[in-house]
Design goal:
CATH topology: Immunoglobulin-like
Structural class: mainly beta
CATH superfamily: Immunoglobulins
Order of helices and strands: HEEEEEEE
Number of helices: 1
Helix content: 10-25%
Radius of gyration: 21 Å
Number of strands: 7
Strand content: 35-45%
Largest sheet: 5 strands, antiparallel
Number of domains: 1
Distance between the termini: 15 Å
Shape: elongated
CATH architecture: Sandwich
Length: about 120
């Protein structure tokens, strides 16, 4: 039972290493021809290779203004993000790419460590 408790405390400490990020961008109001448009939403992509779209990590409705998305990432290394707009099945080209770098962090020590004589 005590081993399980120590393991649970360690796992909870490790999951606390995740960082929350807020991605924000200006809303899309025009199509590529310069005409007014109402979009359905936005897709946020995160990848590990610059210049690639990576995996979709979130979607924001086109009615959200200003468009923002809070996401969590805990993998150490440099990650690249882009956002696209979509209307129906049509998706825009990727936005400008930005990068975030997550450094290695040590977990906090286990709290309330104690030994008792039995």
């Amino acid at each position: 039972m005590k081993k399980l408790l120590v393991l649970l405390l360690f796992l909870l400490s490790a999951s606390a290493l995740a960082e929350n990020y807020t991605a924000a961008w200006d809303p899309v109001t025009q199509d590529v021809g310069g005409n007014a448009i109402t979009i359905d939403g936005y897709n946020l992509y995160l990848g590990e290779v610059a210049g690639t779209r990576g995996l979709k990590i979130g979607t924001v409705a086109g009615t959200v203004n200003p468009p923002i998305l809070v996401f969590t990432e805990n993998r150490v290394g440099t990650h690249y993000l882009v956002v696209t707009a979509y209307k129906g099945t049509l998706e825009s080209a990727s936005s400008n790419e930005i990068s975030i770098t997550i450094a290695t962090k040590s977990p906090k020590p286990p709290p309330n460590f104690r030994v008792t004589l039995k």
